[in-house]
User: Which sequence fits this backbone?
């Protein structure tokens, strides 16, 4: 049950980060016009992100290649930083290039992705405490933080859970 709670929190946070500013379509009305090319692109983007998040959440090396491909395709339209965040998660898990994962997290933070900001703050707490505090302050200004959910600590917990080799039980 705890794994499902973590997974639901992950999807909720991803959705929060996504709803406000993650499309680069001409208008909301075009997204709602059934059959429009813009609507089709939007639906495919949404599908790619949902599938990628499920694969990232499921863990396992057999899921990584497909998750990377879906995230790469979704990143072309993503304006929320969500695709970059999940790409960074996969790199960190694989113990890939640290500067590449940091660059992806910074790109996601510039787009105000809450989990990216929380993770950057956490990763910099020892090496650059002032920058870590700036990220924490940036998080405090986000809509998700001003609404009270998730707290900064909850966002860090979710980000930690995504990076961990195995799923972490909820506290």
Assistant:
């Amino acid at each position: 049950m705890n794994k499902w709670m973590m997974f639901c929190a992950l999807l909720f946070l991803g959705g929060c980060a996504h709803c406000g500013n993650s499309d680069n379509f001409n208008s909301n009305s075009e997204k709602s016009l059934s059959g429009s090319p813009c609507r089709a692109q939007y639906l495919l983007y949404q599908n790619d992100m949902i599938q990628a998040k499920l694969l990232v959440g499921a863990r396992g090396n057999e899921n990584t290649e497909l998750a990377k491909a879906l995230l790469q395709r979704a990143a072309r339209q993503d304006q929320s930083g969500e695709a970059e965040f999940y790409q960074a998660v996969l790199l960190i898990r694989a113990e890939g290039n640290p500067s590449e994962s940091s660059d992806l997290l910074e790109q996601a933070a510039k787009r105000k992705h809450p989990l990216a900001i929380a993770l950057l703050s956490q990763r910099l707490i020892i090496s650059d405490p002032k920058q870590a505090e700036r990220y924490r302050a940036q998080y405090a200004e986000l809509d998700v933080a001003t609404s009270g959910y998730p707290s900064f600590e909850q966002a860090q917990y979710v980000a930690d859970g995504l990076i961990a080799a195995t799923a972490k039980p909820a506290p």
Summary: Residues 37-58 form the longest helix (22 residues). Residues 7-13, 15-30 have pLDDT under 50 and may be disordered. The domain at 2-163 is CATH 1.25.40 (Serine Threonine Protein Phosphatase 5, Tetratricopeptide repeat). The chain has ten helices and no strands.
